[in-house]
């Protein structure tokens, strides 16, 4: 089991709590935990992060293909279960169409295929107008958590040096 991180984890970290300029330890922890085989994301998330032109883009590009894993045969085999569940829930057709075209779909499929835990800032919502990752995870029995829960579970420590 590994953690699969949603794009919003990286983006919010950069913009708010763990800016590169004042909390480089967070980014080092991500790289170290990935190196230990416990944390990844997917290529589609990596594509979102490298579409910009900022520090996050540079960091994501430096991680290489091993961090942002490509879609493999197992993920492709899990994708129909994800799309089938989404279609059967009565979501607005526009919401279904959007979800099936974005990284969120592939993130859940990868988690389902590998029995991984999705890490996202999204929270479940009863709306039928937008499909949220936690709703799909609950429906498919995929574990999910927010980044703070992951950091606590992994006992991450960002301590000032002396």
Name its key features.
162 residues; alpha/beta; Rossmann fold; 9 helices; globular
Write the layout of secondary structure elements.
Layout: E1 3-5, H1 7-15, H2 24-35, E2 39-42, H3 43-49, H4 55-63, E3 68-69, H5 73-88, H6 93-99, H7 103-114, E4 117-119, H8 133-140, E5 144-145, H9 147-153
Parallel strand pairs: 1-2, 1-4, 2-3, 4-5
Question: What is the CATH architecture term?
Answer: 3-Layer(aba) Sandwich
Q: What value does the Rg take, in angstroms? A: 16 Å
Q: What is the domain tally? A: 1
Number of helices: 9
Order of helices and strands: EHHEHHEHHHEHEH
Notes on the protein architecture:
The protein contains nine helices and five strands. The chain has helices spanning 7-15, 24-35, 43-49, 55-63, 73-88, 93-99, 103-114, 133-140, 147-153, and strands spanning 3-5, 39-42, 68-69, 117-119, 144-145. The chain has a five-stranded parallel β-sheet. Helix 8 links the parallel strand 4 and strand 5. Helix 7 (103-114) runs parallel beside helix 8 (133-140). The radius of gyration is 16 Å and the shape is globular. The chain starts with a strand and ends in a 9-residue tail after the last helix. The mean pLDDT is 97.
């Amino acid at each position: 089991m590994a953690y699969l991180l949603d794009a919003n984890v990286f983006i919010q970290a950069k913009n708010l709590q763990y800016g590169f300029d004042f909390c480089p330890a967070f980014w080092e922890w991500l790289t170290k935990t990935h190196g230990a085989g416990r944390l990844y994301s997917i290529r589609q998330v990596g594509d979102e992060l490298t579409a910009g032109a900022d520090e996050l883009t540079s960091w994501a590009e430096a991680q290489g293909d091993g961090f942002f894993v490509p879609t493999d045969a197992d993920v492709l085999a899990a994708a129909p279960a994800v799309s089938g569940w989404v279609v059967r829930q009565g979501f607005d057709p526009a919401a279904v169409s959007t979800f099936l075209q974005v990284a969120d779909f592939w993130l859940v499929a990868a988690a389902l295929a590998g029995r991984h835990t999705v890490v996202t800032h999204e929270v479940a919502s009863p709306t039928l107008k937008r499909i949220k990752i936690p709703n799909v995870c609950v429906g498919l029995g995929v574990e999910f958590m927010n980044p703070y829960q992951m950091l606590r579970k992994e006992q991450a420590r960002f301590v000032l040096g002396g």
